[in-house]
Amino acid sequence: MIIHAQTPVLEVHDLTVTYARKPVLWGVDFTLPAGCIAGIVGPNGAGKSTLLKSIMGLIPVSSGYVRLFDHPLDEVRHRVSYVPQRESVDWDFPVSVLDVVLMGRYGKVGLFRNTGARDRAIAQDCLDKVGMAAFAKRQISQLSGGQQQRVFLARALAQEADLYLMDEPFAGVDAATEQAIIKLLREMAAAKKTIVVVHHDLQSVRAYFDWLVLLNMHLVAAGPTEQVFTEEMMQQAYGGRLSLLSQVSDVMEKRAFPSRED
Amino acid sequence: MVGDAISHAVLPGIVIAFLLSGSRETLPMLLGAGATGMLATFLIEYFHRRANLQTDAAIGVTFTFLFAVGIILIGAYAGQVDLDQDCVLYGEIAYVPIDLWVTEGGLILGPRPVYILSAVLLVVALFIKIGYKELKLTSFDPAFASALGISTALWHYLLMAAVSLATVSSFESVGAILVIAFLIGPPATAYLLTHDLKYMLAITAALGIFIAFTGYWTAYWLNASIAGCMAVVTGIGFAAVFAAQRLMKTKGSPAEPTRAIG
Amino acid sequence: MQDITDFFSFSDPNVRYVVLGNILLSASAAMVGAFILLQKKALVGDAVSHAVLPGVCAAFLFSGSKNTALMLVGAFATGWLALITIDYIAAKSKIKKDAAIGLVLSVFFGAGMVMMTYIQQSGNAAQSGLDHFIFGNAATLVGTDLLVFSVLAAVLLLVVGIFFKAFALVAFDRPYAEALGYPVRRLDLLLTSLTVLAVVTGITAVGVVLMAAMLVTPAAAARYWTDNIRRMVGISVAFGVFAGFAGAYISYVAPAMPTGPWMVVVSSAIAFFSFFFAPRKGIVPRLYTQHKNRQVITEENTLKMFYHLGERNSHFDGQRSLEELASTREVNKTLLKTALRRLVAKGLLVVRANQWALTAAGYQKAMRVVRLHRLWELYLTKYMDIASDHVHDDAETIEHILTPELERELEHQLGYPDKDPHDTKIPKT
């Protein structure tokens, strides 16, 4: 079941992604409306993070395309913010909390110029929004998991984007942080920002998201949560992988078949 | 470890430049060394990506091969050039004062390496000053950097070029292998001492100067290799800082805050 | 010619020593190296080989002569110390492993150089030959060295033989080995000791700087020829032995040529050859497979054109011209012509006066491709909820891949359907 948005902010069209010739996402096709909090949900290995990364152009796509605000990514990069998984970076890196948040301004500042007083003010303001204002001077190696996630969120806010793609922002954070983050996301959505969240915990799906993308190597369903989040759909998404699909994937990997004729 | 690989791999380039130009002109040597240094980086990438060779093996195979070629070239043309195996190992820092820069008019401007190394220092410092922001971001969070549209590959190669430059210019003075000690030792020590990247850079530079002085005096006192003594001092410095920190930690001093997990 | 016969007659005892010594040391190094490679510790091998230098020099300082046994002990001690230091730094601080390796390697080597220059300045007469340990000099090998080498090689062979299974398991799946109750830490230490031993064996002939290559390079090359670990160790040893032999020969024919570096160059050449040309895993065979696959795709697509034309005017054995074929889908004409030629050669098409027609076998094959295409389209719409106007592209790929087993399973899952999502007939054999 795919329910398309009327005027989409994000359009993913027939996206196929392969890792070392093994397809991990097959023909994913969906759209998202503006001002929604959308959850990307599916079992382990369903390709949720891969989907986010291919939207951001971080991994090459084999076929299909992505359009943001009805433009290709490169034309609207400044309007899109990406929040990687917390574990993907080295938290022993010698920078302060404010330094990390300032990184969100780098796209606006450009090469050869440094971040200025205004960027600093914005960064400080973003830290305030995530409840980390007091930690600005702290080194990142001294933060807890929840605090690290808040810093990442502040960095995303500092980008002043219109579309936010977040890879598992709730993984391994404390309950208070989770509540604080979701509250913030709601405020952002109210201000017509669109937020896409890769999510694991099915318990909170109905409470958190107003749009849902169900993934299991292929798109199972996409649409408003109340229509998509049904027993039948969840059964389809979590009821085991399509064995034929996995077998075809394996054959493609072993025989080094090109994913497209070229 | 790429620094290790580059410092070994520049040898054949230096020797070939030597044979072609027939003199110890700095420019051909820099060009030759830069060429094989880049060849090594390229081969490592190529074997890793194209032949699926594991990275450590790709590095190990490539640089030992290039180094062996360099040694063979030196052996083969030993009679014809004023470059021998000892020079490769120890460098000839002691001869720096002899290697004078004499103008056409016979004016003596002082030791040539001093000018060259000053120029290199200036270039490297300028590079870090200009690219500080980008270098910081691409090292800390490459995925986020790419999402902002900053090319991680470009900055990686620029950094490697800076490493090559520093390595090649030090080669004459301290030899191929000990360059690594100065490339890694001071920053590793500084990394233990501070959580702030700016301080880390400052401490690294200060340590470098300290090592040069103490290393020289130790060598003078022992009547042994200057470069070797500098490397040993580097090691002792690191060990001292490391041990002091371990000692403080086991005493349960609050100086090092425990890192929260999760 | 004289050189060759002289060399291979082994009448000169020096030649015998050098060749045998080289072979023993390369074989030992390559054998241990296979496990180092599989444990992804190639750079650790590099560190050990540099770090034995201070030990050798210390032994010399202590004894005042070139006492082989004592030097081995010294080398062993510092090689070991270096590895333990690396592990300790990486475990107890935020310094990453590769930085720790580089630091320890260069500082130990620096210490070795300080000692060596100190010895040289102190003017001890026996020091001549000590600097050979850096780049190695096979010509200095003598009978007693050979004896030591043989014993070391025998010990290495024996220990590796006994612990083969354990090493293999630890390299493949460390947590599982731990869960089985293998003493993983002690096995690590054992492999470390073997590494140091192998390096020590090599320093007289190859030198500390290049010994890392003799450990890792033959093993990396061997990895490309087999997936069987026993064979891999065997092939690695064979490559190492060949390199040792070649190095000895080259420096015999051209005495100015250093043995160690040539051994490294020869084994690197073997490795590069393997990276490019080893069957299945090499770069060239892989490109060839891809090329073949692409050919298969063009051929099958060409056959499909005949089928589609046949469907349009409902007779499948009609004669088709190049223009007619090209009208069915966007296609490069030269590619199409070569594909047609290949298909004629395979007996799937017949050609008469620039008109092509399907043979019976060609018809079967064309039908199967079309069938797979439509089955897959149906599968995509039915099981993956992809709209029927979005399934064509994907099916264009999959139709060339499905094996007969997958075809049967697909058909079964779809309940032996007659029509595809576009309501076109799915042909049946």
From TrEMBL, chain A:
<dbReference type="Pfam" id="PF00005">
    <property type="entry name" value="ABC_tran"/>
</dbReference>
<keyword id="KW-0813">Transport</keyword>
<dbReference type="InterPro" id="IPR003439">
    <property type="entry name" value="ABC_transporter-like_ATP-bd"/>
</dbReference>
<feature type="domain" description="ABC transporter">
    <location>
        <begin position="10"/>
        <end position="242"/>
    </location>
</feature>
<comment type="similarity">
    <text>Belongs to the ABC transporter superfamily.</text>
</comment>
<dbReference type="InterPro" id="IPR003593">
    <property type="entry name" value="AAA+_ATPase"/>
</dbReference>
<keyword id="KW-0547">Nucleotide-binding</keyword>
<keyword id="KW-0067">ATP-binding</keyword>
<dbReference type="GO" id="GO:0005524">
    <property type="term" value="F:ATP binding"/>
</dbReference>
<dbReference type="InterPro" id="IPR017871">
    <property type="entry name" value="ABC_transporter-like_CS"/>
</dbReference>
<dbReference type="InterPro" id="IPR027417">
    <property type="entry name" value="P-loop_NTPase"/>
</dbReference>
<dbReference type="InterPro" id="IPR050153">
    <property type="entry name" value="Metal_Ion_Import_ABC"/>
</dbReference>
<protein>
    <submittedName>
        <fullName>Manganese/zinc/iron transport system ATP-binding protein</fullName>
    </submittedName>
</protein>
<dbReference type="GO" id="GO:0016887">
    <property type="term" value="F:ATP hydrolysis activity"/>
</dbReference>
Automatic annotation (TrEMBL), chain B:
<feature type="transmembrane region" description="Helical">
    <location>
        <begin position="225"/>
        <end position="244"/>
    </location>
</feature>
<dbReference type="Pfam" id="PF00950">
    <property type="entry name" value="ABC-3"/>
</dbReference>
<feature type="transmembrane region" description="Helical">
    <location>
        <begin position="144"/>
        <end position="168"/>
    </location>
</feature>
<keyword id="KW-0812">Transmembrane</keyword>
<feature type="transmembrane region" description="Helical">
    <location>
        <begin position="27"/>
        <end position="47"/>
    </location>
</feature>
<comment type="similarity">
    <text>Belongs to the ABC-3 integral membrane protein family.</text>
</comment>
<keyword id="KW-0813">Transport</keyword>
<keyword id="KW-1003">Cell membrane</keyword>
<feature type="transmembrane region" description="Helical">
    <location>
        <begin position="59"/>
        <end position="79"/>
    </location>
</feature>
<protein>
    <submittedName>
        <fullName>Manganese/zinc/iron transport system permease protein</fullName>
    </submittedName>
</protein>
<keyword id="KW-1133">Transmembrane helix</keyword>
<dbReference type="GO" id="GO:0055085">
    <property type="term" value="P:transmembrane transport"/>
</dbReference>
<feature type="transmembrane region" description="Helical">
    <location>
        <begin position="200"/>
        <end position="219"/>
    </location>
</feature>
<dbReference type="GO" id="GO:0010043">
    <property type="term" value="P:response to zinc ion"/>
</dbReference>
<dbReference type="GO" id="GO:0043190">
    <property type="term" value="C:ATP-binding cassette (ABC) transporter complex"/>
</dbReference>
UniProtKB/TrEMBL annotation, chain C:
<dbReference type="GO" id="GO:0055085">
    <property type="term" value="P:transmembrane transport"/>
</dbReference>
<feature type="transmembrane region" description="Helical">
    <location>
        <begin position="192"/>
        <end position="221"/>
    </location>
</feature>
<dbReference type="InterPro" id="IPR001626">
    <property type="entry name" value="ABC_TroCD"/>
</dbReference>
<keyword id="KW-0813">Transport</keyword>
<feature type="transmembrane region" description="Helical">
    <location>
        <begin position="151"/>
        <end position="172"/>
    </location>
</feature>
<comment type="similarity">
    <text>Belongs to the ABC-3 integral membrane protein family.</text>
</comment>
<protein>
    <submittedName>
        <fullName>Manganese/zinc/iron transport system permease protein</fullName>
    </submittedName>
</protein>
<dbReference type="GO" id="GO:0003700">
    <property type="term" value="F:DNA-binding transcription factor activity"/>
</dbReference>
<dbReference type="InterPro" id="IPR036421">
    <property type="entry name" value="Fe_dep_repressor_sf"/>
</dbReference>
<dbReference type="InterPro" id="IPR036388">
    <property type="entry name" value="WH-like_DNA-bd_sf"/>
</dbReference>
<dbReference type="GO" id="GO:0046914">
    <property type="term" value="F:transition metal ion binding"/>
</dbReference>
<dbReference type="InterPro" id="IPR022689">
    <property type="entry name" value="Iron_dep_repressor"/>
</dbReference>
<dbReference type="Pfam" id="PF02742">
    <property type="entry name" value="Fe_dep_repr_C"/>
</dbReference>
<keyword id="KW-1133">Transmembrane helix</keyword>
<keyword id="KW-1003">Cell membrane</keyword>
